């Protein structure tokens, strides 16, 4: 039994969990700009949510700010980071070192949030021994060994779609319990394993929705003119 | 005045807008599996939301399904796609053709949602004339010309952080009104321009939260044992 955040067993709604990293990013931006305290309105604006929702979300963490002063940026950052668990070190393995795998291995946002890429694996022997972000690309067959050796709980799949399910199966068999899947298509895993999927087109679709409305608005103005 | 979705001016809450692409993805998965109709519970499970929220979201689109039958997968797909605007063709330009730019140019999820990459631009002359996903990489200076020629409204920034603001400024000056920013850091744009930021570490943080809880649960069981 290791020492852990004693509050980690409380239930926080999934939608709130999904917003905590967004608040963390907004707080980092405020801190980088030299802001020491902020109102819920300022933080909500920086995070792109309304302030009532922000206050509700933070209340699950027992964070209410100080009346007339607001939130202490540094302390709230620590509270959220602890709640998410990114004050810990998370060893991560990336499988599939094509263009996307290269980009992920070089992505500074992982390291700054406690995610440490301990291995890059690829099934293609032509990629082996290449150094990416200072890490050697190794054969996929070393997965089981690396998971045990480095205590890896989180695996990232950046392979083509056709390989994703087989990679996920091997990850789960090796003891990985959380998978971030960048490959198109759905992978199935046993109960107790979490999968999150990154769909790079979702944000583009949200932009398209607003573009369509801007265009409709412009047309309406044209008709009135 | 061109023919557009007459309903596009109705106000849909931003959180609902953000979920519409997720429903669209879930519907595509159901259709690929040969499902013709689905209950709100099935669709909600496939999309990872609760079914009351799904029904509320779809009610903004005037989609209520048929009692005892559920939703027609094909028709609901069309309704959502039309509402988002992805039944239209959206020409997109990608600036910064490093590893991430390569990965984005090759990403099949853009094309399947109506986003057509019309140009790949990079400031580095050594990248010019390279073919990526069948498209020639061209000098960044051609941006203005391409935006006008192809009617580009959406730009994607995949440059290093240090170049992102300058690229955004040029995009806005050229007439682009929506920007998807993959570069770390914040970019500022004038009113009327939408920016969405992709933070690849957010999904990892959500996994970390659940990993931490799994570990806490395992520890608790250990103590009880």
Q: Could you walk me through the main structural features you see in this protein, from its secondary elements to its overall organization?
A:
The structure is a homodimer of 225-residue chains. Chain A is an alpha/beta fold and 225 residues long. Helices cover 46% and strands 16% of the residues of chain A. In chain A, strands 5-6-4-3-7-8-9 form a 7-stranded mixed β-sheet, with helices on both faces. A two-stranded antiparallel sheet of chain A has the order 1-2. In chain A, a hairpin with a 2-residue loop joins strand 5 and strand 6 (135-139). In chain A, helix 1 (14-32) packs antiparallel against helix 4 (73-84), helix 2 (40-47) crosses helix 3 (51-59) and helix 7 (143-150) packs across helix 8 (161-174). The longest helix of chain A is centred in the C-terminal third of the chain and has 23 residues, at 202-224. The N and C termini of chain A lie far apart (72 Å). Residues 1-9 of chain A have low confidence and may be disordered. Chains A, B: Residues 22-61 bind DNA. Chains A, B: InterPro entries: CoA-bd, NAD(P)-bd_dom_sf, Rex_actinobacterial-type, Rex_DNA-bd_C_dom, Tscrpt_rep_Rex, WH-like_DNA-bd_sf, WH_DNA-bd_sf.
């Amino acid at each position: 039994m290791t020492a852990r955040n004693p509050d980690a067993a409380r239930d926080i709604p999934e939608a709130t969990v999904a917003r905590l990293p967004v608040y963390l990013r907004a707080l980092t931006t405020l801190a980088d700009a030299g802001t020491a305290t902020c109102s819920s309105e300022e933080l909500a604006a920086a995070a792109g949510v309304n302030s009532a929702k922000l206050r509700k979300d933070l209340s699950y963490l027992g964070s209410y700010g100080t009346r007339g002063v607001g939130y202490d940026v540094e302390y709230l950052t620590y509270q959220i980071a602890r709640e998410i668990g990114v004050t810990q070190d998370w060893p991560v393995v990336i499988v599939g070192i094509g263009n996307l795998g290269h980009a992920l291995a070089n992505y500074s946002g992982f390291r700054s949030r406690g995610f440490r890429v301990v291995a890059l694996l690829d099934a293609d022997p032509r990629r082996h021994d290449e150094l990416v972000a200072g890490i050697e690309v190794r054969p996929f067959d070393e997965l089981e060994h690396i998971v045990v050796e480095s205590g890896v709980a989180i695996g990232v799949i950046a392979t083509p779609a056709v390989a994703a399910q087989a990679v996920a199966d091997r990850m789960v068999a090796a003891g990985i319990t959380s998978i971030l899947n960048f490959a198109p298509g759905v992978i199935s895993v046993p109960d107790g394993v979490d999968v999150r999927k990154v769909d790079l087109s979702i944000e583009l679709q949200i932009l398209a929705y607003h573009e369509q409305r801007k265009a409709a608005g412009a047309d309406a103005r044209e008709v009135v003119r």
